[in-house]
Amino acid sequence: MPGGSPRWLLIGNSRWHWALASPGGLRVEHRLPPACALEPGILDDLVGWAAVGAVPASVALPPNRRLGLEQVPLAALPPWLGLDRALAGWLAWRRHGRGVLVADAGTVLSLTRVEGSGRFAGGRLLAGVGLQLGAMAAGTAALPRLELPLTDPPAATQAPALDWPTETHRAMVTGVVQGLAAAVADAALEAHGLEPGCHLVLSGGDGALLLPRLQRLLAGQGVMVELQPDLALEALVQLHPNGAGDALDQARPRSVRI
Questions:
Q1: Has 152 been annotated as catalytic?
Q2: Is the sign of the CA dihedral 30, 188, 73, 22 positive or negative?
């Protein structure tokens, strides 16, 4: 029923990300895309939405509440840039007030650099954890198909002594996580060299998998690393013209993956 708690929607490549305003801040849910219509009433209090992934024709989202790339206040944004990258880069830069490198570890792991002046400065794209694991299973006869989210933590998120697992599934996950972490760490050191003080901000559903390994790789290198898993969705809340975002920015969201 209209008049309830405001909510926002960010349509990703593999999940739909919902934010619901609550007295304690934002409550975030990560759901699989609906097979057809959404449940009744869920759009009644929709304040704003944005899409990176496909929008089903069967879902009637209000076009006047859609946020586009042109509404993200970063300089030098190319028209081809993914909206999620622009949103995450803008909010990370806004919060830190300096150069940032955002590593958004979703279906695709995107690296987005924003200069301290608020100018988009390029990035890189890599296949994410799930895509790499799926490619290994699809391209071989013996390797298993592993489902995300992972319930068995990889060795790469634990102690250095566990970096060489003997089980096949752990070897797959550890190899992927360490490879992605190494690529992110290398990019962070490059960005720090171009703009000293540049922060590395991890986001996305697989950010927590990469964080421990990145902290080890970047220890003593002068690069600050932090995890903000729902950065793009929080940016959508902030940029909506109703002004609700400013009040909600003080409390970080609680995430639920469905």
A1: no
A2: positive
Q: Label residue 220 left, alpha or beta by phi (over 0 means left) and psi (-120 to 50 means alpha).
A: left
The residue segments making up the domain with residue 35 are: 7-68+240-257
Looking at residue 157, what is its pLDDT?
54
Q: Are 84 and 123 in contact (CB under 8 A)?
A: no
Has residue 136 been placed in a domain?
yes
pLDDT value of residue 80: 95
If asked whether residues 207 and 153 sit together in one domain, one would say yes
Q: What is the pLDDT of residue 160?
A: 53
Q: What is the mean pLDDT of each run of 10 residues along the chain (258 residues)?
A: 79 94 90 85 92 89 94 97 98 97 97 98 97 97 86 55 82 94 98 97 96 95 97 95 45 46
**Which strands, in side-by-side order, build the sheet including 16-22?**
46-51, 7-11, 16-22, 25-31, 254-257
Given the residues 44, 84, 152, 186, select the one marked as catalytic. Answer: 84
How far out from the chain centre does Cα 234 lie?
10
User: Checking phi first, is residue 35 left (phi over 0); if not, alpha (psi -120 to 50) or beta?
Assistant: alpha
How many Cβ atoms from other residues are within 10 Å of residue 210's Cβ?
27
